[in-house]
Fold this protein.
Amino acid sequence: MTRMRWAPIRAGLIALAIIVSLLEGCPVPARSERPIMERRLPHGAVRAVDEMDKVRGELLRPFSKLFAITRVHQRWKLFAGASRKRYRMRIEARAGDSAEWQLVYRVLDDDHDFMAGAIEYRRMRGAWNPHSTRGPRGGYGPFVKWVAQRVLESNPAFTEVRVQHERILIGPHGGYRATGEMLYPIVVKR
Amino acid sequence: MRVWRWWVELWDRREPPTALALVRIFVGLCVLGDLLEVGRMGIVEALWAPPPEGMGHGASADPWAVQWLGASGETARLLWWIGVASSAALVVGLGTRVAAIVMMLVSAQLGMLAPDSDRGIDVALRVVALVLAFSHCHARWSVDAWIRRRIGRPFPELVAAWPRYLLFAQVVWIYFSGGHNKSEPEWYPVGRFAALANSLSDPHFARFSSDWVPMVWPLPAIATATTILFEWGAPFLLLFMWFETTAERPGRIRHWCNRWHARWIWIAIGVFFHIGIAMFLRLGIFPWGMLATYPVLLRSEELVRIEAWVRQRVYPRRS
């Protein structure tokens, strides 16, 4: 009897959960994607999307706390980045202001692999791997400070550490060539 | 009214808890393995302590862990220990519901402390843990089930199937959403399906040097096209499942899909896709975390048959 009474309530709650999840996962362009949308779509369409997004936001408001506490969302960007503009992060150190920079780590370089296991671990990479369009992430500065400390500890002769990304260009069928252009450099002194 | 009755009946079905128990064990192992890897490398504080000790710049947003325990390396270490304990408890099925909720909340707190280190797969496994917490995933292969048998109150043979259905829908949505969020041209003909060649050549993600990638062209392009078809086609999985459960009804498409085992083809592509990712790209637990959810894609009677087959080979005498 309890099961029979409970079944419609559960079915209703599941329907609500599915509707809320689908609303949350609706592929509305993010704020950062708005300029692209404005370039590609007519003004009326952009306004319509904005209005729908406003309604969606209002409907989701009662559930926002739940999404925040569980840090869950329903917009999945599985491996979405696919552009040919990529980077290759490197860490260099030197012993004195006029000394040559020595390469201590470069991604996927067996000859320069200082702390490679930890640096390349997925969560750590999340901090230093730049966003394809928005550049370095919030964790990049703290990462540089942390890794610089490890490098300085590893060799007392080093006085400063530099972390930067070399821009690489991937070929039309894969493979890449280095461009020599260095981006997002941060230098940490002892 | 008929639709509502069908909806209520759908979510009230019962089945053996095998699929949910497998997901519980596999998901728990993924999270546990990932956290133990962090411990082995000695980067617990580096990842989640606030700067300058670590990369936990999200501590300034005052998540619960910081409000209650303060922003420090000790807080990061304590959360890590709780994460390890709760994921281990989920694997063995000890206090399973509490373990699932605690694991999910700790994962969320760690994600708040270091937002950049919280990846899509962490979010997906949190969703799965939340659903598992409401399920009878501990009715098999668990300490909870063993205790219940010992005290004379065993779990029923059949448990509510709705958590598996919900996880099934979640897996479908993850792939479909992943597909329609891929807006870059490299995923489509206009970008010559170059997406996977680009990823395989990216030193930040590639497992090997990229020299081999141009040599095997157009295989990466074929793999890209297959990936996008697989993701966009994910909702068909619901249709294939329905065709199989209503096999006695007429219809040429139903008959054709069942005859060619369309659902199994989709699952096989998914397995190859994730094993390929694990072989060629360094994405951590992503491929294993997704595969951990795959038991929900199987029908309960299929799992019963698979289990009988395994038992026959492992324990031939007993069978």
In short: Chain A is about 45% helix and 20% strand. The longest helix of chain A spans residues 2-24.
